[in-house]
Structures are given as C-alpha cells and as structure tokens.
Write a structure and sequence with these properties.
By secondary structure, this protein is an alpha/beta fold. It has helices at residues 17-28, 45-56, 77-87, 103-106, 108-128, 163-182, 204-214, 233-244, 281-292, 316-322, 330-345; strands spanning 8-12, 32-37, 66-71, 91-94, 133-139, 186-191, 194-195, 217-220, 227-228, 231-232, 268-273, 279-280, 297-300. The longest helix is centred in the middle third of the chain and has 21 residues, at 108-128. The protein binds nicotinamide-adenine-dinucleotide (NAD). Residues 13, 15-19, 37-40, 48, 73-75, 95-99, 114, 118, 137, 139, 191, 193-194, 200 line the site of nicotinamide-adenine-dinucleotide (NAD). Residues 13, 15-19, 37-40, 48, 73-75, 95-99, 114, 118, 137, 139, 191, 193-194, 200 line the site of nicotinamide-adenine-dinucleotide.
C-alpha cells in the first residue's frame, strides 16, 4: 500500500473512553486516523489528555498511517465543514457525544447541541465529501422502558425515558434519512454499558472503584434491583471495527409493508453490541470487591429519574452480519479494569 492509497478515518470523540480505544486499534493495524474532540469538562479533561498522549506516542507506520488530533467542537458548523474539506476522510466513526443519562436531566441543552446539532454537522460533512461509510454510536438507552428481554433491534423504540435516549434515537432517524436521500452507507451501533481500562469517571465501575478504595459509601440505585449488560471495551472495539469494514448495504428483503426496524431499502443498518449476559448490580459489586480486594459500603437509594431497571442485548443480528458478538466474562473484564484503575490512580 502506498501513502496515497491509504485512506483517512475520522474518529470523533477520540479523547473519550470508546474513541481512544477504537483509535488505538485502528493505529495498530496501520490506518491513518484524524481524531476530533473538544476535550470538554463533563469529566476530568486530564483523563482525556492522558488517553490522547498514549495515542500520540504510538509509532507511526512506514506507509504514512498514524494519528493527528484536531481540537474542535462538533457544534461549530464552519469548522466542521473545513475539517471535512481539508482531511477528506473516506470513513467516519462518530463517537463524540454528550453521554450520560443522569446529566441529561440537569442539562438537556448540552445534548441538543452536541448530539443533534453536532450529529447534523457530521451528516453534512459525510454528504458533501462522499464518505464511504459512517459508523456512529447509538445506545441501549433507546429501548427506554421496554420490558421485553433481551432487547432486539426488531422491537419498537418509541418511548425514550431520557433526553439522552431521545437524541440517540433521533440520530438513528437522521442517519437513515441521509442514507435514503444521499446514499450514505451508515451503521448505528447500540452500545450496552461499556466498561474497562481508561473508562468513564461518571459511570458505575469508576464511581464505585473510587468510593470503595476511599472507604466511602457507594450509591446503589433502585435499592440494588438493577441489571446491566456490562460489555467489555475490547469487545466494543472489535464490533466497531468489524462493522467499519463491512459498509451498510440496502436490505434486499426489506418489505415496506412490514418494515424491519433494523434495516432499510437504503444502506442503513442498526445493531446491538452488548454482552448478552445481564448481571444484577449486586453481583457486579461483588465482582468489583473481589477484584479490588476491598468490601464496598452500599448506600441503597431509590431509582433515579431517566434510568431503566434492566438492559440485555440480543446480538444475533450483529453476529450474523460480522461473525462476532461480545463475550468477555465480567470477572475477566473487571480484573483488567481494577488493575488499570489502581495503576493509573496510584491507589
Ligand atoms: N460508554 C458507554 O457505556 C456507552 C453506552 C452507550 C452509548 N455510548 C455512546 O458511545 C459514544 C462514546 O462514549 P464514551 O463512553 O466514549 O463517552 P466519552 O464521554 O468518554 O467520550 C465522548 C467524547 O466526545 C467528546 N465530545 C463531547 N461533545 C463534543 C462536542 N460537541 N464536540 C467535540 N467533542 C465532543 C468528549 O470530550 C469526549 O471525549 C457516545 O456517543 C456515547 O453516547 C456509550
């Protein structure tokens, strides 16, 4: 492969938990990656900078791959247009977003700006520059209060219970429209509670680890009556990259009289990426206690607004499409997480 043959992949949210891990995997296989992030202070920007410096230290391969970082806000339409114009990415992995269900109750406008206006700017960039494939993050939260388990892409998702979830569902609809009108191949991936090294400080594994090691109580919502399909970061990365490598195509059996919600007559596909092993929250806490070698002090609290009691992924569609579904056992993944946490924070 020559330098000119090498495509550029744009990864948004490259300083984020999932974005940094996906970028690392792309760099390992010799891709040329442009990473975008605004390094906002929703959580400690020092962690985002630390993830970035690891990427910046990775050796650039001979044939012109390697990493470049652009600090930009998705919301800035003219800067985004300039980015697409100058970088000409052939593929886009869009992971930047205002994440988090609970924060969307306090600050809905952050979600409107990053997840709706920002997503619109990504779609426009893809449309005007002939991007060959857009892979974007959706979320298990689109299933809202659905009780039918496991969650399947075939189930209706019309009752989101947080604005975060509504923006992710909106992204799926917006992407379908661009696929239909402009022929943009686009794949939406519904991630289920991702955990692992370099994780997010606003999510349970990091919040719990911090409190447990400080001898402080952990807040256990819905009195512990919660279940989550915890999915290890390496499995998410593998799923994202396998999907990147297989651009969405129209579904030849799509029937407008009985439309499949996960496919389309346009090149748009939706997949769950989850571990398909829902774990009760109290079991999750036990596994974390074992890995850290310290007992937690649980403080039981009611259900939080916007939260859902349980998630579980049906990943048969993903497996049929790319021959892979997440499988890392929680005990293994939490072991890696706990070692990283102690090492990174020196505790
Ligand atoms: N981690 C999970 O469990 C999970 C579950 C479901 C869906 N998701 C989705 O996956 C994607 C990645 O999540 P994550 O866990 O890595 O989150 P993260 O917060 O660690 O990463 C997102 C990154 O996007 C950046 N960002 C946010 N708004 C931006 C903007 N307006 N302009 C430029 N950069 C911006 C942030 O600075 C951050 O570094 C998100 O779209 C999230 O909604 C994550």
């Amino acid at each position: 492969m020559t330098v000119t043959d090498l495509r550029t992949v744009l990864v948004t949210g490259a300083a984020g938990f999932v974005g940094a891990a996906v970028t690392e995997a792309l760099l390992r296989r010799g891709e040329r990656v442009v990473g975008l992030d605004n390094l906002n202070a929703y959580y400690d920007p020092a962690l985002k900078r630390a993830r970035l410096s690891r990427l910046q230290c990775m050796p650039a391969p001979d044939q012109g791959g390697g990493f470049r970082f652009r600090q930009l806000d998705l919301e800035d339409g003219s800067a985004m247009a300039e980015l697409f114009e100058s970088e000409r990415p052939r593929a886009v992995i869009h992971l930047a977003a205002q994440a988090g269900v609970r924060y969307s109750i306090e600050n809905p406008s952050a979600y409107i700006h990053s997840n709706l206006v920002g997503f619109g700017n990504i779609l426009e960039g893809c449309r005007h520059h002939g991007v060959e494939h857009l892979v974007y993050a959706s979320s298990s939260s689109v299933y809202g209060g659905n009780r039918r388990m496991p969650f399947s892409e075939q189930h209706p998702v019309n009752h989101p219970v947080s604005l975060y979830a509504a923006t992710k569902k909106a992204n799926e609809l917006m992407a379908h429209t661009y696929s239909h009108l402009y022929g943009l191949p686009a794949t939406g991936l519904r991630f289920f509670t991702v955990y692992g090294p370099w994780g997010r400080p606003d999510m349970a594994p990091m919040l719990f680890a911090k409190a447990i090691l400080a001898g402080e109580p952990i807040r256990v919502f819905n009195h512990g009556r919660m279940e989550r399909d915890f999915t290890y970061i390496d499995d998410i990365v593998e799923g994202v990259i396998r999907c990147l490598d297989k651009p969405a195509t129209p579904d030849p059996s799509f029937d407008p009289l009985d439309p499949n919600p996960a496919t389309a007559a346009a090149p748009h596909r939706l997949f769950n990426i989850g571990n398909s092993q829902p774990t009760p929250l109290l079991r999750f806490i036990e596994v974390l206690e074992d890995a850290l070698g310290v007992k937690a002090i649980p403080q039981f609290e009611p259900m939080q607004p916007g939260d859902v009691a349980a998630t579980a992924a049906d990943t048969s569609a993903l497996e049929a499409w790319v021959g892979f579904a997440p499988h890392t056992p929680l005990e293994v993944g939490i072991g890696h997480f706990a070692r990283w946490y102690r090492d990174y924070y020196g505790v």
